Amino acid sequence: MLGWSLLLVLITLIGGTLPSATQLLVTTALVLLTGVMALQIFSGNSGILSFGHVGFVGIAAYTTGILAMPPTVKKTSLPILPELLQGIQLPIWQAMVGGVLVATIIGVISGLVVARLGDAASIATLAVLIILHGVMVGAEPFTRGSQTFYGVPRYTSIVVAGIIATLAVIVARVFRDSRLGIHLRASRDDSLAASSSGVRVHYARLVAWVISSAVAGAMGAAYAGLLGAFSPKDFYFSLTLTLLTMLIVGGSGSVAGGIVGAIVVTIVIELLRRVGDANGFFGLTSAGLAVIILLTLYLRPQGILGFREPEEVVAYKSLPVSPRDTDSDPLVGRDQSQGTVVLSCNDVVKRFSGLTALNGVSISVEAKRVAGMIGPNGSGKSTLVNCLTGLTKPDSANITQAGQPIGNQPVWRRARQGLGRTFQTVRLFREMTVLDNVTVACISSGLSPDRADRRSLQILSVLGVAQHGYRAAGELPYGDQRRVEIARALALNPRVLLLDEPAAGMNPAESRELLTQLQTLLQQTEVGILLIDHDVALIRSACDSLTVLDYGAVLAFGDPETVLAQPEVAAAYLGWRDQMPALDHTGATGQQKGNHHE
Ligand code: ADP
Ligand code: MG
């Protein structure tokens, strides 16, 4: 970040000596860069493409223009402006702050809607653009409608643009590495897994939207003083396309990507403009932008720089992770004595239209013990986990965690109170590093990003995957991904761990290793574990109690050996797979697929 800031300061300093055409080009690029940073803060971190930010740019430009314009000019340019505003002329910087404030207020109002929407959010941002454009066209006393608004003092020199762009870069970078920024980036990769790791997805999106609306406002405040005269169409699709191209070409996932994109696209636009002007072909720049954006999406969807800042890439290459640094610390957990009930549910019922997936299931998990659960595919095990964590809303249930009812709490709050889980099909934040995957949950548990990194390493080393710390999580082999997922759940400092088929897809050796790691966990912490698996050997050696689920109901419960010996349990399994040696000791049943409900 320091490097980029220095570069911008340098441009600002030598800017005054450049020929005036170049100065104008650089100033424009710096103003656009401010807008790209606004988009990076929201879209880059959340993964939700925003078409609405240019609306904030426009609102701020008009507001700043009105506040900065001398009353004598206003008399002719804005004759029907309300009396109060007619007489006002603020110093430039105050007028700019006014523009930013108005954009931010509109950011808060629109953000309350946009942040709540899931996949539809991107379309909603388009609506924001269209509505704000409509406001600019409609508010004639303030904007002269679709006619040109003129008379704004030309205060945006290369220095002013440089200072604002530098501030925008700093804000974007600080936000990216903040707790909320890290959380938002996790939700970009997988919002369900993020909320299960304690991320308040809606809240993080709202904060990012509001901050980015303020930065877009700063672009508008600078743009007004650069253009001097403008109309609503200057803040519509073509500016949106320019900013989005810059962000996407450079790489939306990093601040550096936004800067590189702004530089590259500025140069390309300038070249195309010259070629177009020389040949009388005026649509060339828009066509060029469209081609660049398509080429980028086709050839390198993550943009030139991808998801990481250059200094992260350098640091990751030069610093091998050394788990030995952290080995000696014990893995502190919650203070809960062995045998206390940390999670229980009574009479959970869940129907999916006609199908009753859970029909009155009750289980309880105790501290420092492993409650096992087996059952044929489709018997409702994963649905139970989803009901417990809040991802699925049960039709009726009575769920308590450490004695407190949690049935009405959102997923992220249950996670922060100590409900850790893994998914039957691994759900990591694939573009983030292994370390960051775990850090996300450490932050949810209340640690600062720095302390979170240290604890993440420690947890990763317990699971034996610390050496992969700086790799993208999506690159790891399957078994290691499962371990990282367990590490991430552990990072919540959980009272309970719900492991949904953690050994599925592992070979017997890997599954034994997993068992050892779980036992280490139980020695070092007081966590209670619900272990769901088909691997009977694993269940037999790991569990203190065993529940058998069949057709959404508890078929048997008790001591694992006794339960496994019951004829109806054997029948449930044998009915499921005739030839299945499920109840022997080979443990080779992890990968079996079959479904007696099909
Ligand atoms: P298990 O984890 O024991 O294999 P699941 O809990 O995944 O079983 O599924 C239990 C039953 O509920 C299955 O019949 C499955 O098809 C059904 N089911 C699970 N999730 C949904 C859903 N979101 N919508 C409809 N049916 C579902
Ligand atoms: Mg399942």
Q: What is the domain total for the residues?
A: 3
* Head-to-tail CA distance between termini: 56 Å
What is the oligomer described by this structure?
Answer: single chain
Give a count of the beta strands, DSSP E runs of length 2 or more. Answer: 10
Classify the secondary structure makeup into a structural class.
Answer: alpha/beta
How large, in whole angstroms, is the Cα Rg?
A: 29 Å
Say which molecules are bound, naming each kind only once: adenosine-5'-diphosphate, magnesium ion
Largest sheet properties: 6 strands, mixed
* % residues in beta strands: 5-15%
Specify the overall morphology: elongated
Mean pLDDT: 90
Explain what you see.
By secondary structure, the protein is of the alpha/beta class. It has three domains: 2-232, no CATH class; 341-418 and 494-593, Rossmann fold (3-Layer(aba) Sandwich); 428-493. A hairpin with a 2-residue loop joins strand 9 (545-550) and strand 10. The protein has 26 helices and ten strands. Adenosine-5'-diphosphate (ADP) binds next to strand 2 and helix 18.
